Every structure is written in C-alpha cells, then in structure tokens.
Amino acid sequence: MKLSEINHKYQNLQYRKGVVGWIFKNLLSSPLNILLTFFSIYLLYLIIPATINWAILDAVWQGKSNKDCDFSGGACWFFIDARFNTIIYGFYPQEYLWRPNLVFAILAISILAVTTNILSAKLKIRFGVTALITLPFIIFIILKGSIFGIEILHPIVDTGKWGGLILTLILSLGGIMLCFPLGIMLALGRRCDSMPIVKYFCIAFIEFWRGVPLITILFMAAIMLPLLLPEGTQFDKLGRALIGIVLFEAAYIAEVIRGGLQAIPRGQYEAADSLNLTYWKKTGLIIMPQTLKLVIPGIVNNFIALLKDTSLVSIIGMWDLLNSAIGSTRDPKWIGFIIEAYVFAGIIYWIMCFGTSKYSQHLEKKLNTTN
Amino acid sequence: MQNQEEGIIKIKNLNKWYGDFHVLKDINFNCNKKEKIVICGPSGSGKSTLIRCINYLENYQKGSIEVNNILLSENHNVIQKVRRQVSMVFQQFNLFPHLTILQNLTLAPIWVNHATKKEAEETAKYFLERVHISEQADKYPGQLSGGQQQRVAIARSLCMKPQVMLFDEPTSALDPEMISEVLDVIIELAEEGMTMLVVTHEMGFARKIADCVCFMDGGEIIEKNNPEDFFNNPENERSKLFLKQIIQN
Ligand SMILES: Nc1ncnc2c1ncn2[C@@H]1O[C@H](COP(=O)(O)OP(=O)(O)OP(=O)(O)O)[C@@H](O)[C@H]1O
Ligand SMILES: [Mg+2]
C-alpha cells in the first residue's frame, strides 16, 4: 500500500459512527493529538491507581492515634473522625454543640428555601429578605448567647472560641451579605457625575481597598486597630476581621456591579425618566434588577474567591476550617496527618464552591427572560 | 391664526449646542390641543433632539418650552410636572426586559401615580386591548415581535394618561411587515383626538394624520405647512429635494 492510501484510510476512520469514530475524531486526529492522547493516558495511569490506593485500598479506617497508622501506606482517615469536631466547630465547648448545629440547620433550611421551589416566588422573596436581615442577628445570638451585653442563652461563648467550618461560613457568608449594600452604593456613587464629591470619594474608597492585599487588611484590623482605638474600647477580633473583609470585598463587588451598570442601555434610563420614576425608584426597580442579573457570574466568582480567602484569617490567629484542620495535626498524638487534613479541608471547600457555582448557573438560566 | 391660549406646547427661540455644534437653531413652535404635528427631515437634522427637549431628556441653553402652561426649567419638580403631561414612545421601544408586559404597564402607575395594583392592572388591560395584544400580558418583552413590543410601549405611555404623546421614529426599528400594525394603532389614537408630535419618515402615514408638517434641516425648522401643500408643492428647495429622495426609495 502507498502512504497516501494509508493516510486516506486513516482519515476515513474519523467519519465512522459510534465509539471508534469518536475516538479517531477527538483523540487521534493528528500526530500531535496522538502524542498528547498517549501522554495523557500515561499521566492518568500514574495518578489514578496511586490515588485510589492511598485514599481507599491502603487506607486505615480505624485507630486511636498516630501509632495505629502506617505512614508509608495509605491515608489514615480515623484522624478525621477523631478530630472532626475541632475541624467543624473549632474550640466551641463540646457540651453546647447543639448551638452551632442549630445554626447549620437554620442555614441549610434557609438555603434550601431560597434555592429550591418549595416556596412560591413571592414567598421566596419575602423569606429571602427577612432572612437576610434577621439571620445575622439570630446566628450571632445562638452562637454567642448574648447580644449588646444582654445574656440570652447560657453560657456566653466568646467569639474567640468560634472556629472551624462555622467560622469560615460566618466570615464568607457574612462578608458577602454585608458587602452587598455597600458595594451597590459605591458602584452607583462612582457613576454619579452630578455629585463630584460623592464620585471621587467612591473612587478613592474603591481604589484604596482594592489596592491593599487582604492579608494586610486583616493584619491591620487585628493588630493596628486596637492600638488606634481609645484605651478600653473592646471590640472583638472576629468583628474587626469581618469589617476588614466587608470593606475589602465591597470594593470588588462595587466594580463588578459597575461593570453591569455600564451594560444597561441608555434607553432604559430614558424610558424610566420619561415615566417620571425618581432616581431611587429607577435604580431599584429598573436598573438594579437588570444589573444584578448580569453580574451573577462575577459575584459568584468573587464569593468563591472570598470563601477560600477567609483561610487567611489564620495569620491573625483565628481558627477557620483550614487552620483548624491543620492545627489538629500539631497535637503530639496526631502529628503526621497533615495530608489527610489538607485533603479533607480541600474536599469541604470544593463541595461548597462547586455547589455555589452550579446554583449560579441554574439561576442564570432561570432568570433569562429573552426566550 | 392659532389661538395662543389653546397652545399646549409652546417653544420659543429654542437653541441648543453640543459643545460647539449648534444642534437647534432658534426653534419656534406651537402645538395646539388635539393637533397632530409630523416632524420630518434628513438624518442628523435635530428632530430627535427637539422632541427630547420637550420632556427634558435633553437640556438646552437658550429659549423656553411651555407645556400645558408649565414653563419647563431645570427644577426637578417642574420637570416631573411636565413629564406627567407628555409621554414618549422611543424608536427602540425601551421596554423593561426583566418585567412582564403587564408589569411594564403597571409599574409607573403604581410607583409614580400611587394607583392600587388592581386599578393599574385594569387600566393596563384596557390599553393592551386597545393596542390589540391582550393575550400577551404575561409574556416578557423578549418573547414578542418588534411590532408587538412597540405597541406595548405605546400602551405603557397611554397608561400614564398623558396630554401629549411624543413619537420618535416609532417604526424605524421595525421590519417592513410590522410597520403598519404600529401605524394603525397610532392612527386610531390620532382619530380619537390625542395631541401628538411624531417624528417619522413614513410619508403616507404623515399625510394621513398630520394637521401640520414641520420640515427640519440643519437644526432649523425650514418649512411649516399643512400636509396638502407640503407634499404637493413644497415652498422650500430643501424640502423638495428631501421629498424627492424619500419618494425615490
Ligand atoms: N450626545 C451628543 N453629543 C454630540 N452630538 C450629538 C449628540 N446627540 C446628537 N448629536 C448630534 O446632533 C445632531 C442631531 O441629532 P438628532 O439625533 O436630533 O438627529 P435626528 O434628526 O433625530 O436624526 P435621525 O433621523 O438620524 O434620528 C446630529 O448631527 C448628531 O450627530
Ligand atoms: Mg432621531
């Protein structure tokens, strides 16, 4: 056979139907692709069996301390089991874990109520708004046991003891919820040409907070702020860190929202103006609903980044999910489990981020009113 | 001669500049109650700018505009009062894409005129029927054809019970087969006695509804005439040229 004939026959394989056709079309269509395909298969061959061996086949599921673990072999998952409470709840007193559990339940129910179709659209909005306003207070009261110095639940658990997954959730959900109103105002302010003072204040604010690394902000909030505040002012570290995160995040969200605002056609403003809507009604009823819909991907992207960035609070001595997981391995009894700790924390982060991303895709589809 | 008292829109010596560019030059203009005025002229002559000044979507530097005896100024309250008298239909419809047709129609009555939801919906349905699209009330603008969207936009304007309606090339963004359905609705309105200012290139339609045709070029009103004379023997050279070009197309 001549070379051209072989070549021709080979080309024809790509037009076959079914698996063979698919393989030749997608994986083996050119010499470079053939090379890449085999290289990828080789990589998978290296990674997958090793991972399965480590995570499942050679893994140790039961034990009491690092003495029960053979470190040359697989993962020792009993470490997670033993330190589970620390990773999820931080140093929250063991006898009162029902309180963080109640918070998880409330969060889960709220998220289900808002993201699924159990409630009618109207109820959903009402519930969502109520939850947005009241939940921060409710969660704070349940976890801390007091508000504004009034004891409601016994005992009062200081915010310094909050940790683990619950702290990560508080910082990220609290951060994104509280930064929203501020971000919207900053975005609107930055576009407000008729009031230069407002405009330049917003620009300065955004550029300042966006230009500083989050680590610096957290550090300032934790170390510098108490020095600057008048003697005797008590303001707990969680609150300070949260404010830092909110200001930082608001600057980002403001820019995301401003991007969306720019995409709204001028005709929408003109139609609203000619119908005599005031500035705030125009913004709230016409412009913002359309803008927010446009910027869902950007906001979700920021939220996912924030969710993971909250792990930076470890540098100011707070015990978020990642820090609790790693910190657990510093206990002499549990030294050597660092990989398990990272993998477990990574899985939890991944589930939360992936879930958020999936939901945002669903939301975008649902809100699409052009066909 | 027109009765000055009856004039619902009175424009005197209106001048507007975009930077150095003189868009509107000494416009004098009077529109009486129930009068239908058609404004035409070549592209860039300032037609849109002129009618957008009337509800202050554009500001202007010199001259005065009076709507229903309210002298337009920069003052917010005055602008709102004037906008209550006039309502505008845009070339690009400018419906609110995130709201259903019914919500598009009831939004301003509820939030601006403080109508109850029930009242507003009744009015909305009445006007949707008037523009022949009552079946579409629960759809979104993106699901309607251009002609239907423009009719919804007209109904939305009507829901505000305006004294005057401004149309800025209401059919220019439409496919040819949809133009007549929109023009028919406007003709019906005209026949019922609505005061209207229409910028349009549809000369047949202009001839049908106009009490008066204004021809604009280079920011000036060059000729103001009744439709009969304007179309049959225009006074001005530029109007002649313009009509010739329009008819050729
Ligand atoms: N925002 C603006 N800044 C500067 N120049 C402008 C602006 N808006 C319009 N113009 C200019 O003003 C002139 C009049 O514009 P206008 O939109 O009123 O024209 P028109 O008669 O409505 O034309 P068309 O038939 O194309 O709609 C045009 O030459 C245009 O380029
Ligand atoms: Mg125009």
* Helix/strand class of chain A: mainly alpha
Report the uncertain regions of chain B: none
Question: Termini of chain B, distance in Å?
Answer: 36 Å
Number of DSSP helical runs of chain A: 15
Q: Which ranges of chain A are low-confidence, i.e. pLDDT below 50, for 5 or more consecutive residues?
A: none
Shape of chain A: globular
What's the main sheet of chain A like?
2 strands, antiparallel
Rg on CA atoms of chain A, Å? 27 Å
**Secondary-structure element pattern of chain A, one letter each:** HHHHHHEEHHHHHHHHH
- Rg of chain B, Cα atoms, Å: 18 Å
Largest sheet of chain B: 6 strands, mixed
Summarize the amount of helix of chain A as a percent range. over 70%
Beta strand % of chain B: 25-35%
Strand numbers in spatial order across the main sheet of chain A: 1-2
Anisotropy-based shape of chain B: globular
Structural class of chain B: alpha/beta
**Biggest contact:** A-B, 20 and 25 residues
Strand and helix order of chain B:
EEEHEEHEHHHEHEHEEHH
The total of helices of chain B stands at: 9
Strand order of the largest sheet of chain B: 6-7-8-3-9-10
In quaternary terms, these chains amount to heterodimer
Could you describe the 3D structure shown?
The complex is a heterodimer of chains A (371) and B (249). Chain A is mainly alpha-helical. Chain A has 15 helices and 2 strands. Chain A has helices at 3-13, 18-26, 31-57, 78-89, 98-115, 121-144, 164-190, 196-211, 214-228, 237-262, 266-274, 279-294, 296-309, 321-328, 338-367; strands at residues 146-147, 150-151. A two-stranded antiparallel ribbon of chain A has the order 1-2. In chain A, a hairpin with a 2-residue loop joins strand 1 (146-147) and strand 2. In chain A, helix 7 (164-190) packs across helix 10 (237-262) and helix 10 runs antiparallel to helix 13. Chain A is globular and about 85 Å long. The model of chain A has no long low-confidence stretch (mean pLDDT 86). Chain B contains 9 helices and 10 strands. Chain B is of the alpha/beta class. In chain B, a hairpin with a 2-residue loop joins strand 4 and strand 5. The model of chain B has no long low-confidence stretch (mean pLDDT 90). In chain B, 39% of the residues lie in helices and 25% in strands. Chain B has helices at 47-54, 76-85, 101-111, 117-130, 146-159, 176-191, 203-209, 227-232, 237-248, and strands at residues 7-18, 21-32, 36-40, 62-67, 70-71, 86-89, 164-168, 195-199, 212-217, 220-225. The longest helix of chain B has 16 residues, at 176-191. Chain B has a 6-stranded mixed β-sheet with strand order 6-7-8-3-9-10, with helices on both faces. Chain B has a 4-stranded antiparallel β-sheet with strand order 2-1-4-5, with helices on one face. Chain A binds chain B through residues 265, 267-268, 270-271, 273-277, 281, 285-286, 289-290, 293, 367, 369-371, and chain B through 55, 57, 80, 83-84, 86-88, 90, 92, 94-98, 107-108, 111-112, 140-143, 156, 160. The site of magnesium ion has 4 residues of chain B, from helix 1.
